Amino acid sequence: MKGLQYECNNLVEVMDATSNLDVAEIVPLKMDFLGNLKEVNNYRGVYNVTRDKFCAAVVPYYNLVQHKQYFDSFAQALDRLNMKFKMTIKTSGDRAFCDIEFDNKNIKFDKLDEEFITGMRLVNSYDKSTGLHCMPRFTRLACTNGMILTRNENTVSIKHHSKMIKELEKFIENKIHTMINEYSDLQTWVSESIKDSIEWNAACKIIEKLFKQPKHREEILKRLDIDMVIVEDKKSKKKSVTYVWNDENKKKKKFNRWELYNAVTNYLTYGEHITPHIENLFHKRAEKLLVTPLIKMPKATGI
Fold it and tell me: How far apart, in Å, are the Cα atoms of 95 and each of 89, 105, 163?
């Protein structure tokens, strides 16, 4: 099932868009025991009313947060603070994602010759696949690649049964203030990743280790002008992978981690058939390229 997607530029547009998101309810659970229905007292169920679908069994003190409630609360807080913003809202199954970009809150690192649009990503689910996630999101101005940093100290993931959810408004305003004023992690990671020097074939192996699925790996390597050739042995049926340059005139002896990271984020931003869930998952893998020193990066052999 293809998910929904909305682009919003103000509070009115956000509230209109979120009215179309799935609604869920907490419902009692019953168990069929030898043909007799018995109520399960120590658990409740989350039921997606919009899709007529059972989502998950939860503890009685579970706090169900509607997608609309979570995203609207952030938009309302930004509106109260008189901050201009853009929101992109997407859904994937029982999960919903919201990317926020702050207007006129760009940061520029002159020594790195890089500028970023600041923002945040919000995630909520009805199936317990995630809690309430709130993490810094940046867009590299040079190529408009989206960057999501889960290891930043301002990243928060709250379980739905946490008492903190009952003070949602206080939590939201606090996260907005911290995320628009603290960028030291980003500057450090970018600076260190630029200094690295990786032989091009070793770089291919690192990408191979992080992205095992050939179709995704192939798309990432294309952005580095490298082709992936897969050969299957007729007898053993085993596959081997070779990496070759698409154009020998563009051949580079070495890459740095920043170049590899940008190849991945470019694919996640502009690649076709990338669901919000896969994008979110792969951003965590991509982040390893940005924050992990070269000496600790995984190596790989074979397919």
Answer: 11, 28, 21
Cα dist. 278→15, 142, 237 in Å? 26, 24, 29
Q: How many CB atoms lie within 10 A of CB 119?
A: 24
Domain boundaries, the chain: 5-188, 196-296
d(CA 177, CA 80): 13
Per residue in 123-156, pLDDT tens? 999 999 999 999 999 999 999 999 998 887 678 8
DSSP 235-284: TT--EEEEEEES-GGG--SEE-HHHHHHHHHHHHHH-TT--HHHHHHHHH
CA pair distance 303, 301, nearest whole angstrom: 7
pLDDT tens for 15-59 read 999 999 999 999 999 988 878 888 888 999 999 999 999 999 999
Among residues 75, 78, 90, 86, the alpha carbon closest in space to that of 15 is found at: 75
Q: How far apart are CA 182 and CA 13, in angstroms?
A: 28
Coil, strand or helix at 43: strand
Report the alpha-carbon distance of residue 128 to residue 95 in Å, rounded.
9
